[in-house]
User: Fold this.
Amino acid sequence: MEVNNGVTFVLLGGTGDLARKKLLPSLYNLYKKGKLGEFDIIGTSRHDLSREEYVRHVGVNIDKHETWDEFKENIRFAQLNFYNPEDYEVLQEKLLGCGDERLFYLATLPQHFDVINDNLSSHDLVNETSKVLYEKPFGDDLKSAKELNRSINELFPEKNIYRIDHYLDKELVANLSILRFSNSIIDPILSAEYVDHVQIIASENFGVEERGGFYDRYGAVKDFFQSHLLQLLSLVGMSTPEKLDSRCIRDEKVRALRGVDILDTITGQYEGYRGEEGVDEDSTTETLTAVRAALNRPRWQGVPFYLLTGKNLAKKYSQIYVQFDKNNQSSMSSNGTIPNSLVVSIQPDRGIYFVINTKVPGGIGTEPAKMEFCHTCHHGPNTPSAYENLFSQALAGDQRSFIRYDEIEEQWRIVDGMEIPEPITYEPGEVPEEVQNFIQDGEWHGLS
Ligand code: BG6
Assistant:
């Protein structure tokens, strides 16, 4: 049989929000940068669409250049109801003649993962070189995650399994281990001896958009806190790994997650959420959550970690803010100095900066100044998006920015143990007072 060395991307959930807004645009960007080589894309959906209709549907969000016409020639469509075994036969036929290396992307709800896995396996669609990528959330809680993982492990070898958290593929997040462990002056100051508190913020200035049905089932804690925020916490809180390789880093992340204690949680729901499409009219699902946590590791004794994620707030930005202890500063003037801080700005601005106190020229007063690494100024605005990185790394078989199952298990253990209070209602674009006052002796960095 002729061997086709190209790669085939099979998008299960091919008409969904994620496929349209992130997956197809990222594949197209990789194509424009010449990084795809020979490829085919097979989008699937339970709807009966022609190839042209599918291409039109997924092309809406794409910033098209003259290469679009070439690119779209490689897009195919297969109608596939996850629960209908015959549809997988159609997919099987479509796969003949496409690139042998297959990348299955399960861009769908976790409740469908089992039936999809069973069918991919029973139809022999997953071969030696295939990769099966699972979009988050991986399960609904610890119990379902365990069951899901057990059934996946029975069907596919671990080396073929990629559990996604796209935050790990954001450039500044992927930079965190380098920042800490390849700069000998930085890591030693990230400890209770110097740090007053840490904030991890992911604020969004839009609502649930077309994902009301999904979101209402999960809410901010399971949609965002369980995955992205806890991953960021583990990267900031982990101890120095023995080596900077994927196994040692993941081992340390798991240890950090095991030490997480949730001390306080508040939640909010934006006004109008209950009227969103797909949302229950009496829904008590939270669209915002703020958490105070401790990390029971000698390095972090007594340092509070404040985590916040929310929809329909004033701004869209994600950042890690480390505030150092004011009392440890020696300053020429006690007048007007501020505590030093380190900010890792993940998006929309990308960069890392320290805030230091400096002398006002010609006077004796002080003023704060930034010591900054501006990622965008240095590397330009077109660094790869998280999903471009994710595809590139999966193609390279690099598991570093995917999550190992024991991390997921710890993340669900934390979330399952949380008491989630009734949400406070807040106006879109505003930060509720309770959230503003959540940080003891401080305020959220950049939130209002
Ligand atoms: C997803 C969440 O994982 O991440 C969404 O399900 C959220 O609710 C999104 O909006 C944010 O990702 P990004 O990369 O667009 O900031």
Observations:
- The chain has a mean pLDDT of 94.
- Residues 204, 223-224, 386 surround 6-O-phosphono-beta-D-glucopyranose (CB under 6 Å).
- The domain at 168-381+404-436 is CATH 3.30.360.10 (Dihydrodipicolinate Reductase; domain 2).
